[in-house]
Amino acid sequence: MKNSRLILMLCFLFAFFQLSYAQPPDVTIDGKGSRQVEPATRLTLSPKIIDTVKPSEVASYPLLVYLYPTEIQLSPIKAAEIETTEKLRQLYPIYAKIGMGSGIMPLGQFVYNSTRSKGYQYGVMVDHISAFAQIKNRDGVAYAPANYDKTNATVYGKIVDNTYMINGQLSYMNHGFNYYGVPNDTIDQSLIGQRFQKIGGQLGYVSDFGDSAVMNYAVDLGYHFLQTAAPEEDSISDWRTGEHNASLNIKGWYNYKSEEFYANLGARINSYAFGVEDSIINQVIDTGRFRQNTIIDFKPGVLTQLMNNRFKLDIGLSMALDIGEETRFYIYPQAEIKYSLFNDIFIPFAGIRGGLTQNSFSSLTNVNQFLAPSIVLANENNPYDIFGGIKGTLSKKMGFNINASFKKITNKAFFVTDTLSALRNQFGLLYDTLNHTCIEASIFYQLDEKLKIDGIARFNSYETMNETYAWNLPILEFQIRAAYNLFDKFMLNLDGHIETGRKALIYDLIDGAEEENNQYYINLGAIVDFNIGVSYRYNKRVTAFVQLNNLASQRYNNWYNYPVQPIQIMGGVSFRF
């Protein structure tokens, strides 16, 4: 059975192979054509599996070396230097200065001061200067004796604590001089002599709690009494000028964040009298002149500082109550704005202010000592003073300030010749409304402690209501100061000023006088005054000095008929011990 199946299978396979190799009949096809076969290319890449997950490389670390040889190389260095200069200068409690000038002009100064102390300071200072030289004008005409002497004495002290500071002083002045504005050198000095005596004191208290959330305050008190001698030997030889002046100012301020809130409350009292001596002390006179004036001040305001203190705005009001023969109330604006550009290289500023100035015999004689003892006093009212400018630094050693201002003053006091004086060698007061425009530029330069120079130039323009000119006020002003330290042995200093455009009101048509608007005036001429001084420091305790004043030897007039001394040489020595 099995053999028959095998035979049958073999027969089937034989028949299949015969059919597979059977040839079909031949077919002939005629045709034309071009057959191109593209060249074959071969893939050079081996097949690989592309997987989105790439295996991370296994980092291999070398074996750590526990011992490694260290190489040391030594190089020489410069030896260190230690500065042994004293950080604090030694202070000497006593200072004395004596000297003599040409024309018999002695001077002296004595100072006793406490040395360094954290809690207190006190001292005494006395200085004296006098002169006995003769003065001539530009034409060589000799004037009346111009002798004078001036002595000042001051006792002062200060107490400093962590939360407060108290300071005070007592002062005394004795100043004798002559009204020498008379072209006559034979006149009796008793007819032109004058002497001021002034005694006063100040007391101040300032709190310092060191916390911006606490109210701080300061209190200042001041008082002085001035009395004159009789200017002439006549029927009123017992008459004197006496003046009491007192002031009180209280300031409080409170800091909150970037603002400082403050307020000032003060009082100024002035009592002036010209009469017999007893009446001056008792403040009651039947004849002569007497004036009692009190001013109450109140100034609230706020100071804002922003942008790391580059922007500052100070705004407030100033109020004054003027109590006298008539009571008046004034309100003045107070505002100022500053902004620092380029790290204080340029600081533009602008503002407006005003105030009431209390004229007194003491303050006016500080400007012109030849004022007549009997005067009429009035307060100067400044309704507004508009100002603006720019200041800054040109380098680490140089800075500048350019500004302009325009202000109005009512009852501006001008010094004019007193026609009531027999010799017309004294000055009276004339009041007028003044509009004053000022343009000013200043510059300073400092090279460490070796050289310091600063100068200022000022142009003034005046407009008066009733007077032809602003009497005795300059149009152009120039000032310069310089100090030079040579090897810490020689100290040189220079100061000078120039003024032009001053005019004086006169009442006679004299040579050189001019007339305008029915007023006679004379040009006072330019002031050109330069002084130079040289000091030689022998050691820390002894110094010699030489001072040359009025180098140009100009006999200019400080006031009408008051020429000054020509060139003057002064020398002396100072001691510290």
* SS content category: mainly beta
**Uncertain regions spanning at least 5 consecutive residues:** none
| Mean pLDDT rating | 86
Helix content: under 10%
- Distance from N terminus to C terminus (CA atoms, Å) equals 157 Å
At the first level of CATH, the class of one domain is Mainly Beta
List how many beta strands DSSP finds: 27
How would the global form be characterised? Answer: elongated
Q: The CATH topology of one domain is what?
A: Maltoporin, Chain A
Task: Determine the number of helices (DSSP H or I, runs of at least 4 residues).
Answer: 3
User: What kind of sheet is the major sheet?
Assistant: 22 strands, antiparallel, barrel
CATH homologous superfamily descriptor of one domain: TonB-dependent receptor, beta-barrel domain
Describe this structure in words.
The chain has about 575 residues and is mainly beta. The chain has a domain at about 395-575: TonB-dependent receptor, beta-barrel domain (Maltoporin, Chain A, Beta Barrel), CATH 2.40.170. About 5% of the residues lie in helices and about 55% in strands. It is built from 3 helices and 27 strands. It has a 22-stranded antiparallel β-barrel. It has a 3-stranded antiparallel sheet with strand order 20-22-21, with no helix packed on it. The protein has a two-stranded antiparallel ribbon with strand order 25-26. It is elongated. The N and C termini lie far apart (about 155 Å). The relative contact order is 0.08.
